[in-house]
Amino acid sequence: MARSHSKSLPNDTRLRKSIYNQLFHSFYGWRILFLLFGPRSVGAVSIGIGTSLFVLPLEQELEISRGATALLFAIGGFLHNASAPLSGALIDRRGPRQVLLFSLIITAGGYFLFSQSHSIVMVYVAWVALISLAAPNVAWNASSSMVNNWFNRRKAQAMSMLGIGSSLGGVLLVPIVAFVIGQWDWRIAALLMAGLLLLFGLPAVLFTKDHPEQMDLHPDGDSRPEAVSGGRASETAGDEVAMNRALGTRAFWTVTGVVVCFSAAIAALNIHMVPMLVSKDMEETTAGFALSLRAFASIPIMVSAGWLGDKFGRLLMTTIMVLTFGAGLLLLAVSTASWHLWLSVVLLAGSQGLYPLTWAAVGGLFGRRSYATIRGYIMAAAAVGATALPAAVGFLFEWQNSYSLSLLIIATFCGVSATFMVLTPRHLK
Question: For helices 142-150 and 28-47, what crossing angle results, to 10°?
Fold first, then answer.
């Protein structure tokens, strides 16, 4: 009876039902991924790509040097990387949702205090003690752990799609924050960030689950948990690896080298990108638009790289993307032509996809049991480079009044990262 009723439906009605089923009756992990776009996008702007917008306003109002401003954000980067093992252990013990809720409240409170700061001391307290410690859990740590729990065979696709959340923040929110800073004040922009964090973050806390077993499901929607396979060159999950065993593998140390190098390069670019473009005679407002273009261009790059990563190898695609990132840095270093600057911005978009593919590879190699802790230790190792390189770039600019040498140094870090990727085993022994 039901079958004959279905056949009697008009074609457009059957089409609408098919779309509805795809959206609302597919694997629940995809809906969780969609909900995580909210905290991911606002969090990434708050601690990542959006930080560059606050560099020049802070210098002008508080009358501090470029080096001191860079040091502020660099110390923040050091702390959020150095605290990653603790965050990872909390996520593995308490679950991503609890850590996400706690971090949302702290980050929003930090931005409120930041907006009320009238001295460099208060700015440091708000940014370093609150925002830098909690915002990474909103932007990356909690959501990455949750997606790692929900996906296995399609881990790189899911991680890369999650990275689109960061890019959407750059496309949609960075222009708004830049406009608010230009039209009113950086303090109003900080209050806006506090409100957006709660507005887009709380729904993810309310309607997600830490892992599929809480809903009697399995990763990828498979009928049994051991249904694991990947592309012909993909890194796929085998044994659930504990932290102490991971430390004894060559893969852990080479992946750590990968992340240490490209984290330093990305941190330096995120903090200095707007000043870099301004130093090439680009208007400050236009440079803010360039941040959005970089984020927008990263969306198709990440979608494609995620699919190709699951098919041909996650670390292979990461290597290609980090070399593309390095090419963009070199072009920005040697040219001042307008179209070269815009081309470099597009090439730099590849950096947005480095973390999703790398964390997908980590999840594939080490499994779910201690994923957040393993990821946290890798991020902690990256703390020194992510602090030292952005600060060094700031002081080097003051010495030379140019970013050219700094860009060449950052590009070198990309080359070393690619070398570590080639040395990383594709399977644990």
Answer: 160
Distance from the Cα of residue 281 to its chain's centroid: 29
Alpha-carbon distance of 167 to 174, in angstroms, equals: 10
SS3 of 267-328: the string is HHHHHHHHHHHHHCCCCHHHHHHHHHHHHHHHHHHHHHHHHHHHHHCHHHHHHHHHHHHHHH
pLDDT score recorded for residue 13: 53
- Look up the pTM and report it: 0.73
pLDDT (0 to 100) of residue 363:
87
Residue 226 DSSP label: T
The whole-angstrom distance between residue 209's C-alpha and the CA centroid of its chain comes to 21
H helix runs in 313-382, sequence order: 314-334, 338-348, 354-366, 371-381
Comparing C-alpha atoms, which of 264, 315, 313, 312 is closest to residue 419? 315
Strand intervals (E) in 32-142? none
Q: Tally the C-alpha atoms within 13 A of residue 151's C-alpha that lie toward its C-beta.
A: 31
H/E stretch holding 90? helix 84-94
Among residues 211, 426, 186, 400, the alpha carbon closest in space to that of 312 is found at: 426
Q: For residue 187, give the amino acid letter.
A: R
Please count the other Cβ atoms lying within 10 Å of the Cβ belonging to residue 1: 5
Tell me what pLDDT residue 175 has.
Answer: 82
Residue 292 has what pLDDT? 77
Tokens of 34: 């969609």
pLDDT value at residue 24: 46
pLDDT of residue 22: 43
Both tokens of 383, joined, read 């703390």
Element (H, E) at 370: none
- For 80, 150, 290, 339, the CA distances from 331, given in Å and listed in that order, are 30, 39, 15, 11
Q: Which of 350, 335, 371 is nearest to 155 (CA)?
A: 371
* Rounded distance between C-alpha atoms, residue 126 and residue 140, angstroms: 20
Low-confidence ranges of the chain (pLDDT < 50): 1-9, 15-24, 226-234, 237-238
Q: What is the DSSP letter of 77?
A: H
Q: Which two tokens stand for residue 5?
A: 């009723």
